[in-house]
Design brief:
heterodimer; A: Immunoglobulin-like; 2 domains; five-stranded mixed beta sheet; four-stranded antiparallel beta sheet; about 35% helix; B: alpha+beta; Lipocalin; three-stranded antiparallel beta sheet; about 15% helix; about 30% strand
């Protein structure tokens, strides 16, 4: 009789937990779902696989303008017109990557942090969808509103610097 | 009398007894002079150069060729072996600290006669170079400062693409190809997204041909 009660209790717990687990799985799947590029545009998925230098953020610029920022196990989608784009990131060293953005396609760029003297050195490199998919289960999007605010603030600071010079 | 009537009927039914007068409103079969190769047609190409992140720089160009013929309607093909050009979108040498070499290639065009077929979306089957970043960091953690210095001399692998490496690409725009420059495939390849370019209509009653009525 006790065995039956225990089995019923276990079954009940499993049933109660199932929706939560399903919700978590759905949340994880939703977290890695990438948007489609805007019509006629391409997009660049900037992602930062975890590992070393987790505290170091990878701030990416194009022609000096901040276009995105990722921390460990995060990604950010940059809308970009078709053509060649040169992205740069800098901590104690600077690294650059050139990518070709195609209309209606997604291009992947990976930012990794390797050992530096004072702070991690960023490495921006071209990546692939396959590589992205390997990292995707651990990835979460950067908060778009927060990044937009940071980009806006950066633009203002750059403008102030420009007018001061 | 009966034989005369029969002879008259036979003579009336004989087509060659009526003088041939061309009817401008009737369809006329015209061989197309141009065939349209649509944008976004998948093609397989081959790199005809040895490329390495250590030796090549962004902007370098190299030869490519078409591996498999592109089938068009009517048994016409863009023949395999059609040459073109690719370019190095990004090249960066392997560096101290375990940063691997990086090489990103793009396809520019295939050229058939004087006509360029613009290409895009090149995806090569090359494996990424070995990433030794983790190893370098491991040495730093294990050996402290000495390990950190030592790790600066660990380099990632150079990215290399050898001659003959194959890749996929897509045509970047619709292109009209002169039939005179195309090859023929008598094995009647199944047309893949190929469309015949219609000759310019002469007027509202321009004849339509069997060829230019192919589905678009």
């Amino acid at each position: 009789m006790n065995y039956v009660k225990f089995a019923a209790l276990a079954f009940g717990i499993a049933l109660a937990g199932a929706p939560a687990m399903a919700k978590d799985n759905a949340k994880a799947a939703a977290a890695v779902a990438l948007p489609k590029p805007k019509p006629g545009m391409g997009q660049v998925v900037l992602f930062r696989p975890g590992g070393m230098g987790g505290a170091v953020k990878c701030t990416v610029r194009e022609d000096g303008k901040m276009v995105g920022r990722v921390s460990g196990n995060r990604f950010y989608v940059i809308d970009a017109p078709a053509g060649t784009h040169t992205y740069t990131t800098k901590t104690e060293s600077t690294d650059t990557v050139n990518v070709q953005v195609e209309p209606d396609e997604t291009t992947f760029v990976k930012c990794k942090i390797s050992m530096g003297i004072m702070v991690g050195r960023p490495n921006l490199s071209p990546s692939t969808e396959e590589e992205w998919l390997k990292s995707a289960p651990k990835m979460k999007p950067m908060e778009a509103e927060k990044i937009a605010a940071e980009i806006s603030k950066d633009d203002s600071e750059r403008a102030a610097k420009g007018s001061a010079n | 009398m009966l034989s005369l009537l029969l002879a008259a009927q036979v003579a009336a039914a004989a087509p060659d007894s009526i003088p041939a007068v061309p009817d401008p409103t009737q369809p006329v079969a015209v061989a197309p002079s141009l065939l349209k190769l649509p944008a976004l047609t998948n093609i397989r190409i081959r790199v005809l150069a040895d490329l390495a992140s250590k030796e090549n720089a962004t902007g370098d160009e190299f030869d490519i060729e078409l591996v498999e013929p592109i089938a068009l309607v009517g048994g016409y093909v863009v023949p395999s072996g059609t040459r073109g050009r690719g370019w190095v979108i990004h090249a960066d040498k392997a560096r101290f600290g375990g940063k691997p070499g990086e090489l990103l290639l793009g396809a520019r065009y295939l050229k058939i006669g004087e006509v360029q077929i613009p290409l895009r979306s090149m995806k090569i089957g090359a494996r990424p170079a070995k990433d030794n970043g983790g190893l370098a960091m491991g040495m730093t953690v294990a050996g402290g400062v000495v390990g950190g210095v030592a790790s600066m001399f660990v380099t990632g692998g150079q990215a290399r693409v050898a001659t003959g490496m194959e890749a996929m690409a897509k045509t970047a725009a619709d292109v009209e190809l002169p039939v005179a420059l195309l090859g023929r495939d008598e094995r009647s390849l199944v047309p893949v997204q190929a469309v015949v370019a219609a000759p310019a209509p002469a007027g509202p009653t321009a004849p339509t041909t069997a060829l230019n009525s192919q589905p678009r």
